[in-house]
Amino acid sequence: MSKESKNKVGRKLVFSTPEELQAKVDEYFDKPVDTRTVYVGADKTPIKVSVPTITGLALFLGFDSRQSFYDYEKREEFSYTIKVARLRIEREYEQLLQWGNVTGAIFSLKNLGWKDEHTTEHKGEVTVGSPLENIRAKLKIDSNVGTDE
How far apart are CA 134 and CA 149, in angstroms? Predict the structure, then answer.
């Protein structure tokens, strides 16, 4: 099988060059399709903010699934563009954390690999046995002292 016929196997690529993909990604971020109203300040002034999403970007780019979008990241020539696009969306979610109603942003960030965890480190020793045996061992007291034996 020739190299040319190998490339024709499977679904046709949505984008043929990284530059073509980058131009479309930039268009998505420059002309927001998805926006929401956020109320800021003491007087609750309404402002519209962009709300880019992975699914929104995938649809805008012409993919039929998020998986197709992610599959482009596996292709060396498109990997950088997809990684940066995902990072731009992650930044937007991070910024949404500053607006107050953060539940959706937290959920999305967790799906992007963020973790909400606390680490506790314990130091010291753990001994097994009865408390009296442990005290005797530490004080180097004969275990028969103080018994009726």
Answer: 19
The tens digit of pLDDT for each residue in 30-69 reads: 987 788 887 878 888 898 878 888 999 999 999 999 999 9
Contacts of 22 (CB under 8 A, 6+ apart): 81
97: closest CA among 89, 106, 107? 106
pTM score over 0.90: no
Spatial CA neighbour of 98 closest among 45, 49, 134 = 49
Distance CA 146, CA 149 (A): 9
Question: What's the rounded Cα separation, in Å, for the pair 126 and 140?
Answer: 18
Q: Can you name the CATH fold of 12-116?
A: Topoisomerase I; Chain A, domain 4 (1.10.132)
b (16+ CB within 10 A) / e for 119-129: eeeeeeeeeee
Whether 52 contacts 87, CB under 8 Å: no
Domain residue extents for the chain: 12-116
What three-state secondary structure class fits 109?
helix
